[in-house]
Predict the structure of Myelin protein zero like 3.
Amino acid sequence: PGDSGAAGLTRNESLPFVPVPSGVCNVLSLEIKTSPKVRAFVGEQVLLKCSFKSSSPITESLLVDWTYRPLSGGQMETVFHYQSIPHPTPAGKFKDRISWVGNVAKGDASIIIQNPVLSDNGTFICSVKNPPDVYHNIPQTVLVVTERGKLTSAALLSILVFLPSALVVLLLLVRMGRKFRAVKEKGKCGYKKSSIEVSDEMFHICELCENKPNNAACGGLSRDVSY
């Protein structure tokens, strides 16, 4: 209370970042969870989820800060601040494009980005402080914005790998089908008749030769039938 620096801190000011000292990781009193990677399409709003658990009761002193670093690198910049009420950034590339959809009473500190563009690609960090709980993990969310209808490099690679494999399988099936038909036709050509079928045919030939001995099909065959 006697510190003049603390006396000048207003409610709407963000507390300075408090790094986690060595050896404190096992006794964190505040845990934050976010999605490691979020995909979005140009012009379509995207939700950045952030949930937290605090060992202390939620009060008006609770602070939420969302910071952002571009994909190209650089320093982190604050793009959204919450303390009792939302405080969107008054300037910068995310001006008027970030909306608060969280509920701190339920441990939710999520935001929505309106009309994302390709240049929004980068890393977002959700930081929550609920004094006296100020030590917490620092999860990161990588935002990937693409144009709908355009293939990503991963999708293109999958197609390039799958298409040749499908063609090879199709050619193998066609080849197997042709081989199967050839074996089937060959089997028909080499078909051997049973003794009964041979006897029936010989009977008909002999009968023909008896009635028409000059028929070329007889070949000198004669029939000797005894009754």
